[in-house]
Amino acid sequence: MNRIDRLTAILTHLQSKRTVRASELAARFEVSLRTIYRDVRSLEESGVPIIGEAGQGYSLMEGYRLPPIMFSREEALALLVAEKLVEKSLDDQSSKFFKEALIKIKAVLKSSEKDLLAEVQDTIQVLKSSSSKIMNRSSKAFQAILQAISEKKVLSTTYVTFDPEQMSVRDLEPIGLFHSYEQWYMMAFCRLRGDYRTFRLDRFSKLQVTDISCSTSKHPSLQSYLDKIASEQKLHQIILEVPDGSLKYLVNSKYNNGFVSEERVGNKTVMTFMNSSIEGFVRWIIALGDMVVVMEPDLLRNRLAELIGEIKEMQRD
Questions:
Q1: Domain span including residue 172
Q2: Do both 105 and 118 map to the same domain?
Q3: Where does the HTH deoR-type domain lie (predicted)?
């Protein structure tokens, strides 16, 4: 990148946030801090009103731009969600181009919208994504949760648990959203249970933002909560061997069960999963019993044999 292009890109980057540190610019353009200082000084000498604050970074004087379009609060949040999804969904090169384009789009946002994105940036994460539809029935809940997070408001909800399937009314203080295995989840403080819980978005039959403010601003961050879950869960590596003719029956559900990778071996596919629940996994594959071979672990193979035996006994009765 020549210096003229870099100066233009720096100006665009400065418009994408309220403040930008020199170290951030240096890392993005792969140049030294001294070069960034020199470039900023050149922009100032050309008449660009850059404000430098010690320990804070650079910012542009409010109003220095002529935005061709204006974004609503909801559209600004949608940009952030798209950025998180694309980061995990595209190849490295396409992801890089998308981020460059997004920076240019963010440059026209008002300061209040930039502040909003900075505030909710770490409350949304994508742990694993696939090419299939990922929002489906969760979309309305998703927008309400984003609103509640940004406004720090309590959510009034009706939630249907999975096992056993029961409906409960809960007031929730949302902390963040994360996407994993083709589903969106919300981490929230549940006032009913007095503790933090994880909720799957498509299991809300009602979700409404209230006028009640959250009880505290000292909730743990989303990342610290996810780290805690990961440390508490013991993940089992599961390897299945699947003949070509049976592979199609696993395509739509493999991501919901911890799919990691697959490898072609002759006329079969060896699939690797990471899953914390042997019982849950075995009850999934029992429906595919004549289509897959459990290669490991022995714990899963033995439990599958036990469950088949239990089914036989039930049928005799």
A1: 69-232
A2: yes
A3: 3-58
- Residue-wise pLDDT for 42-64, tens only, equals 888 878 888 888 778 998 887 77
Best CA proximity match to 57, nearest among 36, 29, 73: 36
Domain count, the chain: 3
Write phi, then psi, for 98 (nearest 5 degrees): -65, -45
Model confidence pLDDT, tens digit, residues 90-148: 556 666 777 787 787 777 787 888 888 888 888 877 765 544 444 545 556 887 898 89
Both structure tokens of 106: 């963010």
Residue 300, burial from CB neighbour count under 10 angstroms (0-12, 13-18, 19+):
buried
Q: What is the DSSP string of 281-305?
A: HHHHHGGGTTT-EEEE-HHHHHHHH
User: Cα separation of 68 and 277, whole Å?
Assistant: 52
Give the tokens for residue 119.
Answer: 């505030």
